[in-house]
Write a structure and sequence with these properties.
The complex is a heterodimer.
Chain A lengths: L3 H57 L2 E2 L8 E2 L3 H8 L1 H32 L4 H15 L2 H11 L6 H5 L17 H25 L4 H9 L4 H12 L1 H17 L2 H7 L10 H11 L3 H28 L5
Antiparallel strand pairs in A: 1-2
Chain B lengths: L1 H7 L4 H4 L5 H26 L21 H9 L2 H32 L5 H14 L5 H10 L6 H5 L6 H12 L3 H9 L4 H12 L1 H16 L3 H6 L8 H14 L3 H21 L1 H13 L1
Helix pairs in contact in B: 3-15, 4-15, 5-9, 5-12, 5-14, 12-16, 14-15
The chains are: A mainly alpha, B mainly alpha.
Main location (chain B): membrane
Family (chain B): Belongs to the binding-protein-dependent transport system permease family.
Keywords (chain B): Cell membrane, Membrane, Transmembrane, Transmembrane helix, Transport
Chain lengths: ~325, ~290
C-alpha cells in the first residue's frame, strides 16, 4: 500500500495534461458540433460525387475487365500506357488543344470588342447585348440542331447564302479538314456573349479621371485603350482564359449531336473519347485512365492560373 | 455585389466618350445581327409549309403561307410535354435540395467558428476545380451501385451539394448585421429558427441569383442525363431533342427540327426576355465565384 502510492503519483501527473488535452479537444469538438451538423448534408454529397469520384477514378484506372461480365483484374499502369498509346486518344488531345486555342482566342477577342462597343448604357446597346447573350442560354444540343441545318451541304443556310459564291461547295461537317473548324464556330457563337459580360464588368473599373486626363492630353482612343483600359482588364483576361479552357474540355454535346467524333476522328475531343470508352466499349479502366490524365492536366493548369492570379494580387 | 451595381450604372463620362472607334460599333451591330440568324431561321423554318420544298428551306424571308404543321408534327413525334416535365422535375429537385444544403453550409462558414474550418473550406473549394462533367465515369458507376440508374434522382444527385452556392450564401450571410441575430438570440430563438427567420428572408436576391444559374445550367445539361437515363419516358428535353433531331434528320424534316428546337429553347428564352437584368447580373456573379 505504502509502496503503491508513490508509484501511482507519476502516472497521475503524466495523465493529467493528456486528460486536459482530451477535455479541451472534446470541448472544442462540442462547440464545433453545430457547424459540423450544418455542413454534413453538403459533405455527404461532396464525399460521394467529388472526393469519392476522384478516388474511384484513381482506383478504376488500375483495374481492367475484358468483357462487362468478366472479373476485374489488377493491371497497374497498363490502362494509362494503353490510353497514351491509343492514336484515338492522342488525336483527341491534339484536336482538343486546337479546339481550345481556336475557340478561346476568337471568342475572347469578340467578347472584348462587344464589351467596348456596348459599354455605354443605352437602350440600343442593351438590345444588342441581349442579342449577343441569347446563345449562352440555349442548350448546346439545341444550338447543334440549328447548326446542323446551317452546315447542310447544298441546301443549308451557309451554302444557300455564301457557299454559292465559292468555286467548290465544301461539305462542312463531312470533310475531315473542315469539320473541327465548323464545330468551333458553334462554340464561338455560344461563348462570346458570355465572356462579354465579364469584360463589361471589368470595364466599369476603369478610372474615369485617368481616362479624362488622357483625353485632355490628346491621347486617341487607341492610346487610351492600350495604356489605360488594357492594364485594367488584365485580371478579367486571365479569368476568362481559365473559363474558356475549362469550357473547351467540358463542352462536347455538339460533337455528340453533329459528328460523333467523325469524320475519321477529326472532331473527337477528350471528353467524347472518355464517353466512348465507358459507354460504347464498356472499358471503364481505359475511360478512368483518360479521365485521370485529363484531370491532372486541368488541375495543373488551374493551379498555375491561380498562382499567377495571386501574384498579380486581386483577381476578379 | 458592388461590381453588379457598377455594371448597370452608366459608364464613366470619359469612358463614354467613344470607347471604341465608330468602326468597332458598326462591326458589333453587324455581328449582333449575324448572331441572331440561327434564331431567325428557326422561327421562319418553323412556320414554313412543307410544300415550299427543301430548296427554299434556307430562305430567311418568311413564306407567304405560314403554317403550324411543323409544330404539330414535332409535338406528335417527340414527347415534348413529357420531356419538359422531366426537365422541370430535375431542375426543381436539384434546386430544392441545393437550397437546404447551401443555406446550412453557407451559414456555418459565415457565422460559426469551428475546428478544421480552413480545411473544410478547401474541401469545398475543390469541387469548383474538379469540374463535375469530367467525373461522369465514376459517378455513373456509383449511381448504378446505389440502384439509381435510369432514375431522375440519379440524374439529380451529383448536384445536390454546390460549392458555388455555398460560397454565394456565405457572402450574403456575412453581409447581414449580427445585431439582428443577437436580438433573436435574446428572444430565445434556436439556431435553425434564426437561419429560417433572419438570414433566409434577408438573402433573397442571392437565392434568386443562384436559382437562375442552377436552373439554366441543369436545364441545358446533356451528357450526364444521357448516360444515366435509359427509358424514353424519362428523357429530359436535351436528350429528347437529340433523339428527335437524329430521327428527323434522316427524313430531311428540317421544319420539324426547327419547331422541336423552338419548343425546347422557348421557355428559357421567354423567361430571359422578361427578367433580362436579373439573368445577366446572375451570370456575372457566377463568374465571380
Amino acid at each position: 500500500m505504502s509502496l503503491a502510492e508513490p508509484a501511482a503519483l507519476p502516472v497521475a501527473a503524466s495523465a493529467a495534461p493528456r486528460l486536459r488535452l482530451l477535455k479541451r479537444f472534446l470541448g472544442r469538438f462540442k462547440a464545433s458540433l453545430p457547424a459540423y451538423l450544418l455542413l454534413l448534408p453538403s459533405l455527404v454529397f461532396l464525399a460521394l460525387f467529388t472526393y469519392g469520384a476522384m478516388g474511384r477514378v484513381f482506383v478504376d484506372a488500375l483495374y481492367q475487365r475484358a468483357t462487362p461480365k468478366a472479373p476485374i483484374r489488377f493491371v497497374g499502369l497498363d490502362n494509362i500506357s494503353a490510353v497514351l498509346a491509343d492514336p484515338a486518344f492522342t488525336g483527341a488531345v491534339i484536336n482538343n488543344l486546337i479546339y481550345a486555342v481556336g475557340t478561346a482566342i476568337p471568342s475572347i477577342g469578340l467578347a472584348l470588342l462587344f464589351a467596348l462597343a456596348l459599354a455605354r448604357t443605352h437602350a440600343v446597346n442593351s438590345v444588342l447585348r441581349a442579342a449577343l447573350f441569347l446563345p449562352v442560354l440555349i442548350p448546346m444540343v439545341a444550338a447543334s440542331a440549328l447548326f446542323l441545318f446551317i452546315f447542310l451541304p447544298n441546301v443549308g443556310l451557309l451554302d444557300y447564302y455564301i457557299g454559292r459564291l465559292l468555286p467548290v461547295l465544301p461539305n462542312w461537317l463531312g470533310d475531315p479538314d473542315i469539320a473541327l473548324s465548323a464545330i468551333m464556330v458553334i462554340t464561338i457563337w455560344k461563348n462570346a456573349g458570355y465572356y462579354m459580360l465579364f469584360f463589361l464588368a471589368g470595364l466599369q473599373a476603369v478610372p474615369e479621371d485617368v481616362m479624362e486626363a488622357a483625353h485632355l492630353d490628346g491621347a486617341g482612343p487607341f492610346m487610351r485603350f492600350r495604356h489605360i483600359i488594357l492594364p485594367e482588364l488584365k485580371p478579367t483576361f486571365l479569368f476568362v482564359i481559365v473559363i474558356a479552357t475549362l469550357n473547351a474540355v467540358t463542352q462536347v454535346d455538339h460533337v455528340f449531336v453533329m459528328t460523333k467524333g467523325g469524320p475519321s476522328n477529326s472532331t473527337n475531343l477528350v471528353l467524347f473519347y472518355i464517353y466512348q470508352q465507358a459507354v460504347e466499349h464498356y472499358d471503364i479502366g481505359k475511360a478512368s485512365a483518360a479521365t485521370l490524365l485529363t484531370l491532372a492536366a486541368l488541375m495543373g493548369l488551374t493551379a498555375l492560373s491561380f498562382r499567377t492570379m495571386a501574384n498579380r494580387e486581386g483577381g476578379p | 455585389m458592388k461590381l453588379l451595381d457598377r455594371l448597370f450604372k452608366d459608364a464613366p463620362l470619359a469612358t463614354r466618350n467613344e470607347i471604341t472607334p465608330k468602326l468597332g460599333f458598326v462591326l458589333t451591330v453587324l455581328l449582333a445581327i449575324v448572331w441572331l440568324i440561327p434564331f431567325l431561321w428557326m422561327g421562319v423554318a418553323t412556320l414554313r409549309p412543307a410544300s415550299d420544298g427543301i430548296n427554299l428551306m434556307a430562305e430567311l424571308m418568311p413564306s407567304l403561307k405560314p403554317t403550324l404543321d411543323n409544330v404539330r408534327d414535332a409535338w406528335e413525334i417527340g414527347d415534348f410535354p413529357r420531356y419538359t416535365l422531366n426537365t422541370m422535375i430535375i431542375c426543381t429537385g436539384i434546386l430544392l435540395v441545393q437550397f437546404v444544403t447551401i443555406t446550412l453550409a453557407g451559414f456555418a462558414f459565415a457565422r460559426l467558428d469551428f475546428a478544421g474550418k480552413t480545411l473544410i473550406f478547401y474541401l469545398f473549394l475543390m469541387q469548383l476545380m474538379l469540374v463535375p462533367v469530367l467525373l461522369i465515369v465514376p459517378n455513373l458507376s456509383l449511381v448504378a451501385q446505389l440502384g439509381l440508374y435510369d432514375t431522375l434522382t440519379g440524374v439529380m444527385m451529383p448536384f445536390f451539394a454546390s460549392a458555388f452556392g455555398t460560397f454565394l450564401m456565405r457572402q450574403a450571410f456575412e453581409a447581414i448585421p449580427t445585431e439582428l441575430e443577437d436580438a433573436a438570440l435574446i428572444d430565445g430563438a434556436s439556431l435553425l429558427q434564426r437561419i429560417r427567420h433572419i438570414y433566409v428572408p434577408l438573402s433573397m436576391p442571392s437565392f434568386s441569383a443562384f436559382a437562375i444559374i442552377s436552373v439554366t445550367s441543369h436545364w441545358n445539361d446533356f451528357l450526364w442525363p444521357l448516360m444515366v437515363i435509359n427509358s424514353p419516358d424519362k428523357r429530359p428535353l436535351t436528350v429528347g431533342l437529340s433523339v428527335f433531331t437524329a430521327t428527323a434528320e434522316g427524313t430531311q424534316a428540317w421544319g420539324t427540327i426547327a419547331a422541336g428546337t423552338l419548343m425546347v429553347i422557348a421557355p428559357l428564352l421567354i423567361t430571359f426576355l422578361i427578367f433580362q437584368k436579373r439573368f445577366i447580373s446572375s451570370f456575372v456573379t457566377s463568374g465571380i465565384k
